[in-house]
Amino acid sequence: MNVHDSERVAGTLVSKGYTAVATMQEADLILFNTCSIRDKAAQKVFDRLANFKALQKQGKKFGVLGCVAQQEGEAIFKRAPHVSLVVGSASYARLPELIEQLESGEKKVTGLEAATDEAFETDYTRRDHPFRAFVTIIEGCDKHCAYCVVPFTRGKERSRASASVLTEIRHLVELGYTEVQLLGQNVNSYRDPSPAGLSFAELLVAAGAVPGIERVRYTTSHPRDFTPEIVRVMGENPVLCDHVHLPVQSGSNDVLRRMLRGYTREHYLGIVDGIRACARPLALTTDIIVGFPGETDDDFEQTAELMHRVRFSGAFIFKYSPRPNTEAGTWPDDISEEVKAQRFAILQQRQQEMQAEDNQAQVGTTMKVMVEAFHPKLAQWAGRSSSNRVVNFTPMAALDVLGQPGALRPGGYAQVRITKAGPNSFVGQQVN
Questions:
Q1: Are 220 and 181 a contacting pair, CB within 8 Å?
Q2: What are 193-241's pLDDT values in tens digits?
Q3: Could you say which of 3.40.50.1260, 3.30.540.10, 1.10.1200.30, 3.80.30.20 is the CATH number of the domain covering 132-358?
Q4: Which CATH superfamily, name and number, covers 366-431?
Q5: Which CATH code for domain 2-111?
């Protein structure tokens, strides 16, 4: 989602006559797009700003965009005096106007408007990913989980009209894209504001029906809005990628209640049972937070047990850090860094062991892989399966690498028989 924000910003500026350059040394204006979902990410912003302060002497100007900009506001000017521009995500459309203010001589310029109730639209986007195109269908979040800063930096949920989404996807096909990824802070909370009134599941089907589209992905889902209809359409439509990312955050009902997640362990496991009953196998990945305030040893063991029961295909595990404006941010951060690190390491190791074991079951199967890059030293191509697994594979013939007719190319597809599996990737051989 942050990558796509950068594409939107770049597209807006290019449409107004600005030119993107390859290095900071060539630039007149340097923009830092930021994330504040965790404290570590926010601190990186100021570390990087400090590293490049010397460029100010060359007349270059600096801007901070995104969630840290929205969260910190004009305080950024005090912490990083060489910054001239602070712009939140709701003000990206105004960037050319704000930059003109800098060019006219203003020293400090801000764009910190609150997100509006109007549906988000992508007017100009520069596509940086050569194979996968991102399409935002919903912005903001209404869930207000106790630890999460997103509702304060991104505003309330605003969905795009389904016709606008589908028009963008058709345009992407014209540009040569065959895979799209639908984006939103809670993507399955999508509510079509137009008279068509499509549900999220219906939008998935409509996106997959656009001629020329071979894959549709989506990120990220919330358990409160994950319906059996979504599973049903994924089972019926092979163009919908067989991968669900569904953050659980904790396996303890006590912790989930304090997190204000709005569901129980039992509810989540019921969703998992529905996903496992899908007409075709779906890979399931998740997010988990360790060290949330008040998390006991028993709470932690319940999370570890849930992971063992579900056997996720992948898990992003994070150590809790307090965020400003959140409810949990006012509570004592009473789990030591040492305990957080221990719990993180335990879950990470167990998850890697389960992934290694479960991936072995894929040896001998055949996967359709989107080709992304060639590694000359290994004489292998690399790509991703529909379930978002990394696959490194040997082509059928050396001529395939040389650009002969029918050769593999980035953005194309190959059928690959899996010959070896590790915890994070597969190795295989291309087959007819």
A1: no
A2: 999 999 999 999 999 999 999 999 999 999 999 999 999 999 999 999 9
A3: 3.80.30.20
A4: Nucleic acid-binding proteins (2.40.50.140)
A5: 3.40.50.12160
* Helix (H), strand (E), coil (C) string for 90-158: HHHHHHHHHHHHHHCCCCCEEECCCCCCCCCCCCCCCCCCCCEEEEECEECCCCCCCCCCHHHHHCCCE
Q: What is the pTM of this model?
A: 0.90
